[in-house]
Specification:
This protein is 36% helix and 20% strand. It folds into 2 domains: 100 residues, Ubiquitin-like (UB roll); 330 residues, Creatine Kinase, Chain A, domain 2. With 442 residues, it is an alpha+beta fold. The radius of gyration is 22 Å and the shape is globular. Belongs to the glutamine synthetase family. InterPro entries: Gln_synt_N, Gln_synt_N_sf, Gln_synth/guanido_kin_cat_dom, Gln_synth_cat_dom, Gln_synth_gly_rich_site. Keywords: ATP-binding, Ligase, Magnesium, Metal-binding, Nucleotide-binding.
């Protein structure tokens, strides 16, 4: 065992930890776990824990079922809650084949490969996310109209006692897991909240986002409410976005900063933007993976449906936040299409590879747009050369099928499974008879 693994074993013994939960995700981004006792931790480090990979969405084919999960000792943290009165901990895991090779379909491994590509070019990929979610009252009809726990709006100081305390409990839980929070507030929708995490490397941040979901859902259960990261749970209110701020660093130097260029965004930064804009349509099935995602994008709120970029322009797909010349380390771009139901490992991987394509292939960035794109007419947008994101999951999947970038990023097995899974979701969705149809046509 290495030093970090030895530290984990000692901590488990000293803290009298009874269960260690090994966390990983399937290709759809659902958190999975298996619990092991302290006596099995050393063996898990050395040999992994075997499981049936074919039973987990997209990880392996039935004739290649045997897989191993190997815990990443650097992710060890005590959980901020007990299980049956016993102290518990968690570690994120990487998935391996029986011959101890990284599984090509492991979402964490997919992101690692993209980060390795960036590292070969001398870059570290950093992310700062803004995570939105709704809190609803529990009621008997699980599929009825959800009822928010409050009627607050953006930055409101709501009087509902649970609304006041929920974010505080979440922040305490995250900090107990070693995840620093920048700030939190009530968002624009009733019962909607936002929690912003402090910047971290992309792999750590993907782990942190999975932890945030687990903490929020745990607190919701204990408080008797429903937490939803659904992209568009309410018809007349904003959806749940996952705006992410991205930057590349070369050592301690922000590669996106150049005080002499427009917006103080370096040539590397603008090429990265160009790559994301050029590939944004074909990666939409990954960045917006559900049929419901496109109702958020095309609802007419601040979610971006048009492929453009600009300085502080919240109607654009990519915007450059304001920062001063003295804050060169803060140079970044914001991608605004992601929603909170995304698989962060896959989304970060395709966004990074799209940006790197722009750098390596010297893409030209289009002219920036600093007007409200949503307020333009279709004709005005066509004249300005502003393209659209796909309007449905069906369209997004068709574009992904033809994408070399998505296929290369995901690898053959995950690519094949993801497409089949999304085609099945669309097929099941289009067979539904909706309330709208009954109201209009019945």
């Amino acid at each position: 065992m290495d030093q970090q693994q030895e530290y984990v074993v000692r901590t488990i013994e000293n803290q009298h930890v009874r269960f260690i939960r090994l966390w990983f995700t399937d290709v759809s981004g659902t958190l999975k776990s298996v619990a092991i006792p302290p006596a099995e931790v050393e063996s898990a480090f050395n040999h992994g824990v075997g499981f049936d990979g074919s039973a987990i969405e997209g990880l392996s084919r039935i004739h290649e079922a045997d897989m191993l999960i190997k815990p990443d000792a650097t992710t060890f943290q005590l959980l901020p809650w007990d299980e049956s009165g016993e102290k518990c901990a968690r570690m994120f895991c990487d998935i391996h084949t029986p011959d101890d090779q990284p599984a090509r379909s492991d979402p964490r491994g997919i992101l690692r490969r993209a980060l390795d590509r960036a590292s070969e070019l001398g870059f570290t990929f950093l992310i700062h996310p803004e995570v939105e979610f709704y809190l609803f009252q529990q009621h008997n009809d699980e599929f009825g109209e959800p009822v928010p726990i409050d009627n607050g709006s953006y930055f409101d100081h709501v009087s509902h006692p649970l609304a006041q305390s929920f974010r505080a409990q979440t922040i305490q839980g995250l900090e107990a897991l070693g995840i620093p929070v920048e700030f939190s507030h009530h968002e624009a929708g009733p019962g909607q909240n936002e929690i912003d995490l402090r910047v971290a490397d992309a792999l750590t941040m993907a782990d942190n986002l999975m932890s945030l979901r687990a903490v929020v859902e745990h607190i919701a259960i204990t408080e008797g409410v429903v937490a939803s990261f659904m992209p568009k749970p309410l018809i007349d209110h904003p959806g749940n976005g996952l705006h992410i701020h991205m930057s590349l660093f070369e050592g301690n130097r922000n590669a996106f900063f150049d005080p002499l260029r427009e917006y103080r965004l370096s040539e590397t930064g603008t090429k990265f933007v160009a790559g994301i804009l050029r590939h944004s349509r074909e990666i939409s099935a990954i960045t917006n993976q559900h049929v419901n995602s496109y109702k958020r994008l095309w609802a007419g709120d601040e979610a971006p449906a048009y492929i453009a970029w600009g300085k502080t322009n919240r109607s654009a797909l990519v915007r450059v936040p304001t920062f001063s010349a003295r804050e060169g380390h803060s140079a970044r771009i914001e991608y605004r299409a992601l929603d909170s139901a995304v698989n962060p490992y896959l989304a970060f991987a395709v966004l990074l590879n799209a940006g790197l394509e722009g750098i390596e292939k010297d893409y030209e960035v289009p002219e920036s747009i600093d007007t409200n794109i949503n307020a333009l007419t279709d004709l005005e947008r066509r004249i300005m050369g502003i393209a659209e994101l796909p309007s449905s999951l069906h369209s997004a999947v068709k574009l992904a099928q033809e994408s070399d970038l998505v296929a290369t990023t995901l690898g053959e097995d995950a690519f094949d499974y993801f497409l089949r899974n999304k085609q099945r979701e669309w097929h099941e969705y289009r067979q539904q008879i909706t309330i709208f149809e009954r109201k209009v046509y019945y």
